[in-house]
Structure formats: structure tokens, C-alpha cells
Amino acid sequence: MNTAVSQAPANGHAAPASVSTHAASNAVIKPGYHPRLTNEDLAPLATQTWGQYNIFAFWMSDVHSVGGYITAGSLFSLGLSSWQVLVALLVGIVIVQFFCNLVAKPSQVTGVPYPVVCRAPFGVLGANIPAIIRGLIAVAWYGVQTYLASAAFMVLALHMLPALAPYADVQQHGFAGLSTLGWGAFMFMWVLQAFVFWHGMEAIRKFIDWAGPAVYVVMTVLCGWLVWKAGWSNIDLNLGGVKFQGWDALPVMISAIALVVSYFSGPMLNFGDFSRYGKSFLAVKKGNFWGLPINFIFFSLLTVITTAATLPVFGELITDPVHTVGKIDSTTAVVLGALTFMIATIGINIVANFVSPAFDFSNVAPQHISWRTGGMIAAVGSIFLTPWNLYNSPEVIHYTLDILGSFIGPLFGILIADFYLVRKQKINVDALYSMSEQGEYWYSKGYNPKAIQALVPAAIVPILCVLIPALHGAANYAWFIGMALGLLIYGAIARK
């Protein structure tokens, strides 16, 4: 399929003399770009430099986290055999790869981030609707992931200084549901992540380029040590026992596939925030191949072997890698392990939950909210959310994140339908920054009513699946339902 772009300063081509190129931010801003829609962070890139390894490293950082570890391990405890789980993992991650390639293209060929691409289907002002929705989801997860990273820091602190134990007890020393030591650990991780983020996308690229491989090295050593201690013959990879055989296993496998896709649905939606830096669409696709099916399957195998080995070594099945590290009677192992999972969680938090709201909130008021300011708004908001209370209440986190997540599928479906079905892969980049009522993406007062008409019903159905007990069986497939409805409804009404 051919892709046409009215103006795309991509792949290293020099910007015309009539435009302003900002060296510090690598942005190209034309005189006609409206200030209400433009700043150096949202403008098209002058050059795109990320190769396939950078995209591969991005996915490594997205996969290698405490949440990813627990998710992968949980699939092996569904009552399926190991080979059935691996098939489900492979099918699920290939679906993620396919959709990531689809959503990557509009941003890669234009050099603009996710909220700017959303101006095509939603209107130049209406794009704030999907941007704010994605930003709020990222804020919630940013807080939760920071809290998970702080747990690794607490393990390290208590191992090195056991006298701090009373300050880890929220009943003795704490407020707002978190212990004094917990607050210190949380704020330490909060500042550390903000420090990396504040230095810009180039610093983030360098961080994820080495963080992903570093996590693999330590995880491989941890896995090897546990296997050596346990003995391979004592390790059972069927963590929950095999309960389903033959065709009875098919519904469970399908649920596992849906869980994999749902887990990646957030980063998948705003993957354009990163694919915009790709030097070519081919480089992005190659990075997605190595970073998703290859990387995810290897990580999942490493995870389940490590988890299975905890039973013979420690006498209990431990699915949380932080607790596994805490059980090891070695200062060196605890220090390396805790630092590894801190780095891993920082990686996913920055790429999945810091960069996204930075662009999303900046898109709301570009002249007042820069990319850095948008990210810090998200970071500060995550503190007031008290994510430890959210995480420790499964019912609250279930309803909060599942209801917000019910919008991700429809937003994805509308974006894909607009680019591939309605516009046939043609984007007028200049019109994305125009407030002219004759502009291609102005619509009605800057909002496209057709996109909103598609979003509302496409989101209501997944929300009902979350709220109504009788429909909970369909909740696992909320992303697919919302995506399909968004794509079909918008595709039907926008093509008329």
C-alpha cells in the first residue's frame, strides 16, 4: 500500500528555508502553524534517527518489569500445559505486533506524536479527548509502577539496615496508608524517574538501550542459580497443574491470548510517540519483531522457570520477583536483584507511563504546557492518587483502570479506521496544525462529531462488561470488543 503525506520532514531531509528548525528539539515549525496547536515538542521532527535496535530496546523496557513478570507467570497457573501457554503467548504477542505495526505508520511517516495524529480523526481540538483519556490511564499506572519499584528499594534498604524495620510498619510510622520508609522509597524512585525524563527523549533512548539487556543478564543469572539449587528434575513448569485437556483448553487459551493483548493495549495505543523517531518504517517493523514475539517469549520462559524453581528452593511458589530476591541469603544477590527490578520498572514506567501523558497533556495547551511540564503534571498527579491504596484494593483498581481501559480499544479502532480505511494512508501534516475553518481537520468547531459518535457506543459496551456481573465473562475481551466497534462504526459513518 502506498502512503502519501503532504509534508513530512522525515528521514533526514533538510527542512525548506521557509520553516523554522529548532536544533535543540529537532522540530520543524512552519509560519502557518497555529500557536494553540504547536510547540517544539509536538511539531514534526526534522530528522528521525532511531534504528531497529532502539525500538527493540523500547519493547525490552516495556516487557521487563515486575508487572510483566507476574503477568507472564500467572498465565502458566491457569491450568494449561506449558506448550498450550506458549502457544497462547505467541499468538497474543503476534497480534500485538500486528497492531503495533498498524498504529506506528501514521506517526513514523509524519514525524508527529500520538495526540497530533489523533487530530485527523477527532479534529484539531477534539484530539484532546483521546489524549486526556490516554494521559489519565498513564497517570494511574505510573503511580502503581512507581510503588512497585519502591518495594524493591525497600527490600534493599531493610536488608542493608534492619533497624529501619519499625519505619516500614505503617501502623507505627506512616500516613495516608503508607509507611515512613515506604514514602521515602516511593519519593526516591519518583525523583529518579523524573531525573531521567527531564533530560529528554535522547536520554530516555540511551537509558532503555542499556537497561533492557542489563535486566536480562541479571535475570538469567538469577534463573540459573535457582535451577542449580533446585535441580532441573525438580522443576515443574505447569505451575497450577494441568486442568484442561483437548478442546476444553481452548477457551482458557483464548482468554490468555486476550490477556496478553490487553496488557500491551496502553503502550500499543500511543506507540506513535516512539515510532515517530524511527528512521524508516522498515526499521520500526524489524524492531517490533525482535522486541515483541522473540523478546516476549524468551522473557516468559525465563520468568516461568525462575518462578517454578522457587518451590523446590524456598518451599513455596513465589510469583513476585522482588520477594524472590528478598529470600536469597546473600547481600550481593539482594543488591543486584533489587537494583535490577528497580531499573526494569523505571524503564517501563518512563516509556509507557511518563512519555505518553507528557505529549498528551502538552497537546491540551501547547503554549503553556511543554513536554516536560506535561510529564511532571502526570508525576505529581500520581502522588495524590496514592497508588499504594489503589494497588492494595483489587476492587478499586479493577473498576478504575478497567473503565478507563474500556476507552483504549475504541480509540485504537477509530485511529486505525481513519488512517487506513477513510484516508487511505494520506495525511496532510500542515492541516494538523491549522485552526482555519477551511482546514482539512477542523470539522465543527475543531471537533469531528463522527469520531465522538463512534467513541461513545464503542466504549459503553466494554464498560457494561466491567460493571454488570452477568457480562463479566466478556470483560476479558473488552479491548477487542471496543476496538472492533470503534473501527466498524467510525469506518461506516466517516466514509459516507
Description of the molecule:
By secondary structure, this protein is mainly alpha-helical. Helices cover 66% and strands 3% of the residues. The protein has 21 helices and six strands. It has a two-stranded parallel sheet. Strands 2-3 form a two-stranded antiparallel ribbon.
Kindly summarize this structure in a few lines.
The protein has helices at 52-63, 66-75, 82-110, 114-117, 119-122, 128-160, 180-198, 201-230, 250-263, 265-269, 272-275, 281-314, 321-327, 331-364, 371-384, 387-391, 394-405, 408-422, 449-467, 472-475, 478-494, and strands spanning 4-5, 20-22, 27-29, 174-175, 178-179, 426-427. It has 496 residues and is mainly α. Strand 2 (20-22) and strand 3 form a beta hairpin.
